[in-house]
Write a structure and sequence with these properties.
- With 399 residues, the protein is of the alpha+beta class.
- Helices cover 41% and strands 18% of the residues.
- The chain has 16 helices and 14 strands.
Length: 399
């Protein structure tokens, strides 16, 4: 039943996926350490204190959003993750996996829906929203009472009551036009009183006010919190700094590139210069620019798709791009793949050019094994360079 309700909002998954991918990992020892407003921008699993454990859960949730993984399939991933990390958690496996799965998917779909419903075009056509309660085994009386209530889309009541409004809450919101009001003889209501009550967070000791009918921790609107975060990101949107003069010297340029990468890791908006393309790459892609740009969108997608990469790996990008071991063809003529080797680790870096050849963008970045590097070279052939041996030395002169 939960799967159907979560996916029953008619939402194309792209916005839900974007909401989840922009979240930052937040290790926590117990539930409640993360405040309600933070759930719009941070990902936490109560009791998951290690980055590796959170990364594995993040991959599993992302797979559920992208591929439509069912709860039964997610439970298999959950069992594998728990066994891999030896994680001790509260509750039974079936209950805990369902809570992680349903809460994350429901909030992601709701946030994506909120984004769609708050565009200027959508608000112009649908200036009202209708609260919908869906049948469930244990209905909450307040949620049942709100079913069918119509309020203006900009009513402050939605800041605290946009569902989900509690654990395993399946309520949703549907947009309403002026024509709908006339057609169904609906009326716009006044928002119910909040009837806020103090609740002491056992994890932090702080007392917060929670509206009646809302489970503690759900007294916020993740979609709205996400939108506010996106607005702040837009205000701090980065533009690439292309060094000139003395700053264009390789060592100094690398320092500036590292600083730009460090900054965009925080704001994930705009674009920066992540590295200097070697001459062989410029020739292979037939471009005159040597600036390889990294966009905030690509960074966000890469962080979600490859959680094994750490901050230090991204800060290595200027060196990895400027000094690859091998360049091979990609599946498209407008992109190439570089294999770089540093610190005993092989990296795969895909770079693409724009159609007019004016710009170069980093397309993907990941760690991979020597075996996979050799297989890639064997299947596509070497355009330039040679894979180093185990001690980092090239076995033959570079081409």
């Amino acid at each position: 039943m939960a799967d159907e309700v979560i996916r029953g909002v008619g939402l194309a998954p792209s916005d839900a996926i974007s909401f989840f991918r922009q979240k930052l990992n937040m290790p926590t020892k117990r539930w409640g350490e993360l405040e309600a407003q933070a759930h719009g921008t941070q990902f936490a699993v109560a009791g998951a204190t290690s980055k590796a454990l959170l990364d594995d859960f993040r991959v599993a949730i992302n797979k559920a959003l992208v591929d439509g993984t069912t709860l039964a399939e997610f439970r298999k991933d959950f069992d594998t993750i728990v066994k891999r990390h030896g994680w001790a958690y509260n509750g039974t496996p079936g209950w805990r996996s369902a809570i992680i799965y349903e809460t994350n998917l429901a909030s992601a779909y709701a946030a994506g829906r909120y984004k769609q419903m708050t565009t200027p075009e959508a608000l112009d056509i649908f200036p009202y929203w209708r609260y919908r309660h869906h049948a469930c085994q244990h209905p909450r009386p307040q949620h049942v009472a709100w079913d069918g209530m119509i309020l203006p889309a900009d009513d402050p009541w939605w800041n605290t009551h946009y569902p989900p409004n509690g654990w395993r809450c399946h309520c949703t919101v549907e947009p309403v036009s002026r024509r709908d009001l006339k057609r169904y003889n609906w009326t716009v209501s006044e928002a119910p009183p909040l009837n806020e009550k103090p609740w002491r967070n056992p994890a932090t000791g702080k007392t917060v006010m929670v509206p009646d009918g809302i489970d503690p921790g759900f007294q916020s609107n993740p979609g709205r919190d996400w939108a506010l975060g996106e607005k702040q990101r837009a205000a701090t949107r980065m533009s690439p700094v292309i060094p000139t003069g003395e700053d264009a010297a390789p060592a100094r340029r690398e320092e500036i590139q590292k600083q730009q990468i460090q900054d965009i890791l925080s704001v994930k908006s705009g674009s920066v210069e992540a590295g200097t393309a070697p001459a062989a790459l410029q020739e292979a892609l037939d471009v005159k620019t040597d600036s390889v740009l990294l966009s905030g969108d690509t960074l966000s997608k890469n962080l979600a798709a490859h959680p094994e990469l750490e901050r230090v790996d991204y800060l290595r990008l200027p060196v990895l791009i400027a000094d690859p071991a091998v360049i091979v063809r990609d599946t498209r003529p407008t992109s190439m793949v570089m294999i770089s080797y540093r610190g005993g680790q092989h990296y795969r870096i895909a770079v693409k050019r724009t159609k007019d050849g004016a710009l170069l963008f980093l397309e993907s970045f990941l760690k991979f094994s020597r075996e996979r590097a050799e297989a890639l070279i064997k299947s596509r052939g070497v355009l330039w360079g040679d894979l180093p041996d185990a001690d980092g030395a090239s076995s033959k002169p570079q081409k």
